[in-house]
Write a structure and sequence with these properties.
Order of helices and strands: HHEHHHEEH
Strand content: 5-15%
Low-confidence stretches: 1-15, 132-139
Radius of gyration: 17 Å
Organism: Natronococcus pandeyae
Number of strands: 3
Distance between the termini: 44 Å
Largest sheet: 3 strands, antiparallel
Number of helices: 6
Shape: elongated
Mean pLDDT: 79
Protein name: ArsR family transcriptional regulator
């Protein structure tokens, strides 16, 4: 069962631009949201024992790992960021619902507000593969 996201946003409410921009500001969040266009439910990889122990150990240590100041063998920084930063943020905005115990992510009550933007991003990416980092998308 998917846990419900924060009820902070009400259906029918005007899209909060800051929420949308913040949700789409990170590549991991964008990819997860685009993946949800094709599938109503996504499985997120579970944390390794090392990553789980790191999260539970100490917030200052976790901050050092997430900022890149410290590397710990066996800790998957990208996956920790997904579990500790990106998924909770998207759930708070109501764009997803997720259950950390089952590692399942589903579309949230506000997901449809992002759909036009996500579809445009996906169409742009598939219509114009980026081969040059300075590709001009204004055509």
């Amino acid at each position: 069962m998917i846990a419900h996201s924060s009820d902070q946003h009400h259906q029918g409410e005007v899209v909060e631009d800051d929420d949308v921009f913040d949700a789409l500001a990170d590549g991991q969040r964008r990819q997860l949201l685009v993946d949800l266009l094709d599938s109503d439910l996504q499985r997120v990889s579970d944390l390794s024992d090392t990553s789980r122990e790191l999260i539970e150990a100490h917030d200052a240590l976790l901050d050092q790992v997430l900022s890149g100041q410290l590397e710990i063998p066996g800790a998957d920084t990208e996956l920790i960021q997904k579990h500790r930063v990106h998924l909770p943020k998207l759930a708070k905005y109501g764009f997803i619902e997720w259950n950390p115990e089952d590692c399942l992510v589903a579309r949230g009550p506000r997901f449809d507000e992002l759909t036009p933007v996500l579809e445009q991003m996906e169409n742009q990416r598939t219509d114009h593969p980026v081969t040059d980092p300075f590709t001009d998308f204004r055509e």
